[in-house]
Every structure is written in C-alpha cells, then in structure tokens.
Hints:
CATH topology of chain A: ABC transporter involved in vitamin B12 uptake, BtuC
Order of helices and strands of chain B: EEEHEEHHHEHEHEEHHEE
CATH architecture of chain B: 3-Layer(aba) Sandwich
Low-confidence stretches of chain B: 220-228
Low-confidence stretches of chain A: none
Oligomer: heterodimer
CATH class of chain A: Mainly Alpha
Number of domains of chain A: 1
Shape of chain A: globular
CATH class of chain B: Alpha Beta
Number of helices of chain A: 11
Shape of chain B: globular
Largest sheet of chain B: 6 strands, mixed
Number of domains of chain B: 1
Radius of gyration of chain B: 19 Å
CATH superfamily of chain A: ABC transporter involved in vitamin B12 uptake, BtuC
Number of helices of chain B: 8
Amino acid sequence: MDDFIWRALLAGCGIALLCAPMGSFIVWRRMSYFGETMAHGALLGASLGLLWQLPLTLAILGSSLFLALVLQLLKRQQLLATDTLLGILSHIALAAGIVMVSLLSDLRVDIMAFLFGDILAVQRIDLWWIWIGGGVLLIILRLIWQPLLSITVHPELARVEGVNVQRTELIFMLLIATVIALAIKIIGILLITSLLIIPAATARRFSHTPEQMVGFALLFSLLSVGSGLFVSWHIDLPAGPAIVLGAGSLFMISLLIKPRLPG
Amino acid sequence: MILEAENISLKLKGKLILDQVSVQLEKNKITTLIGPNGAGKTSLVRILLGLLKPQSGTIHRKPGLRTGYMPQKVHISETLPLDVKRFLCLSYPRPQHSHLQAVLERLNIADLHNVPIQSLSGGEMQRVLLARAIMRSPHLLILDEPVQGVDIMGQVKLYQLIRELRDEYACAVLMVSHDLHLVMSATDEVLCLNQHLCCAGHPENVTRHPAYLEIFGQFSGLSVYQHHHDHTHDIHGAVTEQQNHG
Lengths: 263, 246
C-alpha cells in the first residue's frame, strides 16, 4: 500500500481520538450549532491565512476564536435567541470565506478541499499537528473534565461549589476551536460537526456513564474513519463524505439494536 | 452569625426587584423565605449565594463559609448518561467513597445509587439534590423550594429530615417556599418578602401579621388567622398607606 493511505489512516485515527470526547461534550452541552458556526469561520481564517502567509492551523484557530468572541458579545445583548445569532454568524462567516477564496483566485486555492477535506493529501507536518496538538488538547480536557461535567449538569450548582465556570467554559471553547483547526484538512468545514456528534449520538444508547459514552464514541469514530477510507480507496469516493456516511450508517444500524439500559 | 446581608437593593432592566432587604442567617436556625411569585425570592437567594450582584447593600459571610445549595429546577438532559452516584461525585471537591456512602445511607437513597438520574421520581430527585447539598458538610444550607413535586406525606418527611440535618451539621438553613402551612412548622423564623421585607419573625407571629395576610389572605382557606392590614400593595407591589387600622 502507498504511503499516503497510511498517513490518511493515522490522521483519521488521531482525529477520531479527539472527536470522541469533544463530540460527547458538544452533544451533552447542545453545542453542535456552535461548533458548526466556528467551523464555518474557519474558511475565512484559512483564506486570510493564505493571503498573509500565516500557518494555516494558526489562522483557522484565530478565526474560530474570533467568531466565538463575537458570539459571546452578541449574546450579552439578549435581544435575539442564541440559535438565531448562530445562524446569522455561521452563514456570514461561510459566505465571507467563499468570497475571500474567490478573490484570491491567483493563489490557486482548492475550495473543495476546504469544504469537504482532503485526507489523502495529508502531509507529515499535518500528522505532527494532529498527534502533538491533539495530545495537548486531550491532556487539557482531562484536567477540566470533572468541573466541565459539573457545569454541564448544573452551572449554578457548580459555581456555588467553587468551580470557576467562566474559565472552564472559555477553555472548552478554545478546545473546540483547536479540534476544528486540526480536523479541517481531514474532514472539511462542512462535515466536521458530523464527525463530532454522530459517533457520540450513536454511543448514547449503549452507555451508562459519561466515560463509557466517550469509549463507544471512540469505537464508532474509528470504525467510521476506517470504513470511510477503505471505501474511498477502493471505489474512488471523496474521503470526507465517505467517512461521514460511515458514521451515519453506524448510527442507523444502532437504532435497530436494543440498548442494554436498565429499566 | 453565618451570613449577614444588609440593605440589599436590586434593579433588573430598570425594574426594582428588591428594596433594602436585610437578612441574618444564624447557626442552628431555619429561616424560611415566603412571598408571592415575582416577589424577588429567587433573586435574593441568588444574591446570598454570590451568583448575582446587587446594586447596593453589603453581605458579610463567615470566613471560609461552605454553602450547600439545592437548586429549584434541575433538568438534566437525556443525552448525558449519569447515575445518582456519579451525580453526587460531581460535588466539588470530589467526595471520598466512604463519605459518599454515608450520605447516601443517611438520606435513605443507597438503593438508588445506580439509577439514571433522569428516571428519578420527584421525591427521589429532591433527596438526591439534598444529598448533593450536604455532601460538602456545609455551614449554610440554601434550599430553593425543597418540597417541589413531592406528595404531602413526602413533604412532611422532607421537612423533618431538613430539621434533623440542621441539628446534625449545626448549620444555618435558608429555605424558599410558597407553601405555607407545612413549612411553618419546620421553621424558626419566617421572612415574608414582596420586594421589601413585609414582616419577619417567629412563624406564629408572622401568620398573625397583617402584612402576611395582605399577601396570603387571598388563600383564605389556608389562612388560620383573621387580621387587619397595616399596609397594602398596589399592582406594582409598592406599599400604599393603610386605610383602616383595626
């Protein structure tokens, strides 16, 4: 087998490892729209990064964070519901990104690669980013695991018990931005939330504890990445959508299996 | 003194919610906050918990104060797989296993430890929340509508339990309630709130107080005593002068 398929597999497994716990939290905290908005902002970040010749991962990180900040500021006005604000921001960001990319036509940007990912073009440097950056991310997530879970259950109770709610939520937002920046090359802006939430949603039916849910989500992410890559290799399909379809198929199949929950 | 709040005033979006309210919470004393909907009970509790900042007034807390809080509405999303034991372990700092076990047994919920939190009945959920509140061996217990969703026998037992816990932990207790009779018997002091403190004191005296009857008199079936008013409220809750003293 060729080198690039191994690189794709390694990158995909790294992303699955990140998406399982982060996706579980996004499902628990009902933040999938938030993740999507940040992902859409990434296209704008990527095109600005190309324009100013910045490292792409950093540019994407910056734009996702900027978007998250704007959202927080708008939320304070309390005039519009969060889902409306997310809808507005997410589409402005996507449109602005596409416009930027087409203005930069002389840079020969492959917009399809940004929108749907290009896992088969993963370079060695991308693997470093995913595995080292991802490792740091997982360590940070482990450190805030307990307080973040407590905030997810009841933020005010957590605050009375002495949890620093604002700081923990801010760190979690940073982690979401980081996952998006790391995963975009693999799965693309339009599909990244699906790899975050579909395996976690599939895992819910089989889990009794939060950690079990992450474990099952990891299993389903790995299966999705593996099957998606296998199919795209053999019948020449775009890899990103194939991975998402793999995750979707697992979700459908899981609905047929009777869960082993008590009661 | 566990906590002392003086002259607390709160305005939200230009609307006066609390007007010069003072509260003292003492060790071994159960204080109950009653008042109609929109009287500012929840806002006052949030201020005492430090979750909300008042526009004016001062709050003195005992140094190193540990507060156990039982929130009013706890809805935990079905998407999060969480059993009772794990919910209690989320208490911060994380409780020791033996301590957790002791609290579970004290509140008679040991057999619920592996039940998903979303499938608890109203009474069971209130006990679990109470367990979470006492998990930290608090100096101050703040209970927002503790008997909500509990049947009448369960309410009597829950109030009894709260009294016992007050003795065991030698803590101050602040309860919020809009139920009148049952809560009275479980209380050392009643604060009757309607933006300002209408009246305060021993439950028996408060239920005879005109201001209390002004507010709760409409539920005359529930009121034991018949009384005259010393002031009335207009539709905005402001105090208007009393017309006929009795």
